[in-house]
Design a protein that fits this description.
single chain; 15 helices; Aspartate Aminotransferase, domain 2; Aspartate Aminotransferase, domain 1; about 525 residues; globular; seven-stranded mixed sheet; three-stranded antiparallel sheet; 2 domains; pyridoxal phosphate binding; alpha/beta
Length: about 525
Amino acid sequence: MLNNKGRPTQPTVDSNVDDSLETFTGNKGLELETPLIFEQGVPGRIGVDMADPKPVKSRLGGLERKESVGLPDLSEPQVLRHFVRLSRQNYAIDAGFYPLGSCTMKHNPRINEKVARLAGLGDLHPMQPTSTVQGALELIDDLAHWLKTITGMPAVTMSPAAGAHGELCGVMAIRAAHEANGEVRTRILVPESAHGTNPATAALCGYKVEAVPARADGRMDLDAFAEKLGPDVAGVMLTNPNTCGLFETDVKRIADLVHEIGGYFYCDGANLNAILGRVRPGDLGVDAMHINLHKTFSTPHGGGGPGAGPVVFSEGLAAFAPVPYVIQGENGFELVEQVEGDAAQSFGRMKGFHGQMGMFIRALAYMQSHGADGLRQIAEDAVLNANYIRVSLDDKLHSSFAGICMHEALFDDSTLKGTGVTTLDLAKAMIDEGFHPMTMYFPLVVHGAMLIEPTESESRQTLDQFIGAMRYLLDKATAGETDYFLSAPHFSPRRRLDETGAARNPVLRWIPDESADANEKTSVSAAS
């Protein structure tokens, strides 16, 4: 099989490549094997010289450490090479196309990184006096203004650390508003296709979650929603565009219905990238919505942080927003940090400090480099790219819902029926083609779901290559080459793992083999 440049894309049966060949080192060209960092340690081998600390009287009351902390002794080259080798085995947006549906993995422009490292911004400390960080507070205030303008909402809190944290913030504000009115409401309505964090957030806040089914067209069933409404409903949590990649055409009616019973409309903002500059959520009747800066505004996705999930509020919820927040006072910009005065109805504090400053800088740089017209084009190009993929694969994969999609194309696995190949098998084969697999088996309302979001930052050439790879693999699956998929991936540093076993019986701690000869371990580590 040749790609469009005439280069062989994978070995064929009569290939001269012998997969059984081995090397002395275990390395295969630039695919370098690296043992665990603990296995490389040699006592006394350190990368820095540090003077012995002066003796001090212990104040630990007999709780002093009796044994070594267990970290390996390593030279600087060992440490550097180990983590560089590991990084080569990771897939990243800087390496290739990352088509995760419902996650918006877009390019992170390097201008953002340059600005975030400017002196006076990159070296801020959260406990500096406000008089010394006026520029930083003004930057936060500018970003807040952009977010309010983009969403058509009058208030925003910047401190939530991620999307799920933003959801928690919004629902806590809803609960605080009802409590201020002397109301006890017990239920929150959530569509069946919602992100899993939506019902989890509502439950965490003490609400009973009631699922609302979808219609045949993939949108929330308005009649079923109306039937579930009542005076005990605190609100609805809805994603728009929804997790099926479709715009909820009844969104204004949904907002009106929930407002009629005194409830609030929480909108999950994970998919804001699809409507950026085209639709203002405030005009749709939204009362609270988190904004994933790492999705819509290109700040890096953090592995547990540095996330940022500001939440915008309607007038009805603004008074209950958490502290701190920035205001412009007589002496410049100030932080309101206490639940008193104008903030007397705030439900309190969610985070130790104001938010993730590095993400604020990157997001504002992204907004200002695009401008209003550029932000609008982001949504237009994201939707165009998704529909290009949908149409290009529609004869090979079955679209879950008819018609034009928004920012992501959703397919089911009906094409694979009877082939012995599953969605998971197809995804594993995508790894061999050099792509991170799409989102699989989500949303749960679609059997064997494949959710593909190209974002606006991918070129047509990249999309064509992805589409070509998908068509090639689907042809192999329907032609009966089942064994190829069951053994994929073939070319990754590690082959298919027992994912179920790993999840149920994880090995989270390295335990040295005490029976091994110490000299033998030293020589093996040195050779590695």
